[in-house]
Amino acid sequence: MAWEGKNHYLFMLEGGDFMLSQNGEYLQALYILYYPFTLLTWEYAKILWIIINIFFAFFLPIFIGKKFGLQNYTLLILICLFLAGTPSRNVIGNGQLGLVIMAFLIIPFYFKSFFYILMSGISYIKYNIGYLLFLYFLSRKEFKKLAYSLIIIFFGWIIYCYITNSNLINNLFQPLQLALQLKITSEFPYGFSFLKHIFHDFKYIEHLASLFSILLSFILLILINRLKDNNLKISQFCLIILFLSPHHIYDYILLLPLLAYSLKNFSNGKVFQINIIMIMYFYFGLRIIKEFGVDTDLNIVINYSNIILLAFLFFYNHIFYKQSIMRENLNK
Length: 332
Fold this sequence. Notes:
Elements: H1 8-13, H2 28-33, H3 35-38, H4 42-67, H5 72-84, H6 86-94, H7 98-105, H8 114-120, H9 127-139, H10 143-149, H11 151-164, H12 168-182, H13 195-198, H14 205-224, H15 230-244, H16 256-264, H17 270-291, H18 300-331
C-alpha cells in the first residue's frame, strides 16, 4: 500500500480492514525494506518470506551455539529443541518477523563495526523488542553507536512520508497509535501492566505502566552491563525484553540464548537444569496446556504467571552468577 502512495497507518486508523493478513503497526522502515516483495505476486512473496524465516530458524541456533562454544552434539540438541519449539514454528507458520528481528538484535554483542551497528537498527522495527537495544546503547553511553543504529529507521521514516505524501510529525507517532488502537499486542500483560487493573480509573495509567517498565528495563541494563560473561549478558538482555514488554508466544524465541547457555553449563549446577525445564515450558508446555482447552494467549493467570517465571529466571541466574564469582574470589 505504501508503495502505491497510500499511508496505510492512516487507512487503518480511520477504520480500514486488515491488509492481506497484515496489521501494519510496525515502524515505517519495514515497509520500505519490503519493496522487493512488491515486485512479486502475493503467493510468491509468501513463499520467499517462508524461505527467509526457515533460513534464520537454522542460522540463529547454529550461530549462537557456535558463539557460546557448544560441542557438536550439544549444538544439535539446541537446534532440534529450537526448531521443534512452538515459538519458532509459530513465527514460520504465521509469517512473523521475530526470527529476522532477533538476528539483527544480537549483532552488537558480537560485532562492533559501523556496518553491523547500522544493520542492528533494523530490530527497532519491532519496537516491543528493539526498544531495549536503544536503551542498551544509552545505558553504556555509546551515543555514536546509538546514532548509527537509528540511520535505517530515520531514512525509512523520511522515505515513507515522501512516497505517501504524509506529514512527518503526524506519521512519526502513527505506528504506536495504530498498535494501541488494534490492541493486538499492547493488551498482553507485561512488567507493570498489573497497575492497570488496580488503578483502572486513572486516565494515564497505561502510559505510566509503560514508563515504569521502560525505567526498570534501563536499570536492569545497567546491572547486566557489569557482567563479564557475554553469554549470560545476552541471555539476560533477552529476558528483560520478555518480561518487561508485551509479547505473543512466538516471541519466546528470545529464550534461545539462555537455552544455549544452560545446555553448555548443564552439569555445572541445578540452576542450569532448572533453566532448561522452564524454557521447555515456554517452548512446549504452553502448547500442551492449550490442547486441554485453555486459551494460553488470553488467560490472564497464565500470562502473569509467565511474567513471574521470566523475571525469576532473570534474577535467579544473576544471583547465581554473582555468588559463583564471590566463591571464585574467596578461593584465590
